[in-house]
């Protein structure tokens, strides 16, 4: 996959190391580009002092370590929650993340598009309205400062498949929001990763071969799963 740089996600260290110690640890292993999983106590925007906000990016630059993205998993947040306070909280957390991205010259801020509860399913039209509302606020703040928001495909969200993600982005109606496509998440949503990549190809700057069994399988077998399908080599052709 010529032209693509291999980086590391800090997922495995969120309860073991703070972000600075983690990046130095991974840097000693030879990694130079990183995606930060946003989780306390590992990394949380409002936990940094004003001095740390200024000093940490300088330290990283001096050590040749580059953060390419921050990723807020869909745990204690939901941009399409039926409760306005939760939607507002989610937008506020993501706004803080965007501001850190600006201070630290991080180009991408990744988010999970929110969950719907099967027991009390909210109508799609309402979910779409809330999604558009929240994403519009965030995109205006992000794009005006050179940060790109990326939507991740996650199986337990209201838009689990590539076609759902693209439909939701069409509803937002902006060209400054992208997609990060996790090929290991796709099968859990009943999606062939090759087909998903074709759908999101114009919108995504990167792709993951995730930490699941399928992801490891793809890495070992040149992009082929046990079924023999060409799962991820289409990324090369974007």
Would you mind describing this structure in some detail?
The chain has 238 residues and is α/β, with parallel strands linked by helices. It has a single domain (8-237), classed as Divalent-metal-dependent TIM barrel enzymes (TIM Barrel). It is 38% helix and 13% strand. It contains 7 helices and 7 strands; from the N terminus they run E-H-E-H-E-H-E-H-E-H-E-H-E-H. It has a 7-stranded parallel β-sheet with strand order 1-2-3-4-5-6-7. The longest helix has 21 residues, at 84-104. The protein starts with 7 loop residues before the first strand and ends in an 18-residue tail after the last helix. Mean pLDDT is 85; it is low at 206-238.
List the helices and strands and how they pair.
Blueprint (H helix, E strand, L loop, with lengths): L7 E2 L9 H10 L4 E5 L12 H13 L3 E7 L11 H21 L3 E4 L12 H20 L4 E5 L9 H11 L4 E6 L10 H8 L6 E2 L4 H8 L18
Parallel strand pairs: 1-2, 2-3, 3-4, 4-5, 5-6, 6-7
Structure, briefly:
Helix content is 38%, strand content 13%.
Key terms:
238 residues; alpha/beta; TIM Barrel; seven-stranded parallel sheet; 7 helices; 13% strand
Rg from C-alpha positions?
A: 18 Å
Helical content (DSSP H or I, runs of 4+)? 25-40%
CATH class categorisation: Alpha Beta
CATH architecture: Alpha-Beta Barrel
Overall domain count = 1
Reported for the largest beta sheet, the result is: 7 strands, parallel
**CATH superfamily (homologous) name:** Divalent-metal-dependent TIM barrel enzymes
CATH topology: TIM Barrel
Order of strands, main sheet, comes to: 1-2-3-4-5-6-7
Derived from helix and strand composition plus strand pairing, the structural class reads: alpha/beta
Number of strands: 7
User: What order do the helices and strands follow?
Assistant: EHEHEHEHEHEHEH
- The overall pLDDT, averaged over residues, is 85
């Amino acid at each position: 996959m010529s032209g693509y740089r291999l980086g590391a996600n800090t997922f495995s260290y969120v309860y073991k190391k703070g972000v600075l110690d983690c990046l130095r640890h991974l840097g000693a292993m030879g990694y130079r580009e990183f995606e930060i999983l946003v989780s306390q106590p590992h990394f949380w925007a409002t936990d940094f002092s004003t001095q740390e906000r200024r000093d940490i990016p300088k330290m990283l630059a001096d050590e040749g370590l580059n953060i390419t993205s921050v990723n807020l998993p869909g745990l204690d947040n939901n941009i399409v929650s039926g409760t306005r306070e939760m939607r507002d909280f989610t937008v506020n957390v993501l706004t803080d993340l965007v501001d850190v991205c600006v201070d630290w010259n991080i180009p991408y801020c990744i988010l999970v598009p929110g969950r719907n509860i099967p027991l009390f399913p909210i109508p799609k039209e309402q979910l779409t309205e809330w999604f558009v509302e929240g994403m519009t606020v965030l995109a205006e703040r992000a794009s005006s400062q050179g940060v790109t928001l990326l939507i991740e495909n996650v199986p337990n969200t209201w838009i689990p498949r590539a076609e759902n993600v693209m439909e939701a982005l069409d509803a937002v109606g902006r060209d400054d929001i992208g997609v990060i496509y996790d090929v290991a998440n796709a099968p859990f949503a009943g999606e062939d990763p090759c087909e998903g990549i074709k759908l999101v190809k114009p919108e995504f700057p990167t792709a993951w071969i995730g930490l699941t069994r399928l992801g490891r399988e793809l890495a070992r077998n040149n992009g082929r799963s046990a079924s023999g399908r060409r799962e991820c080599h289409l990324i090369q052709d974007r």
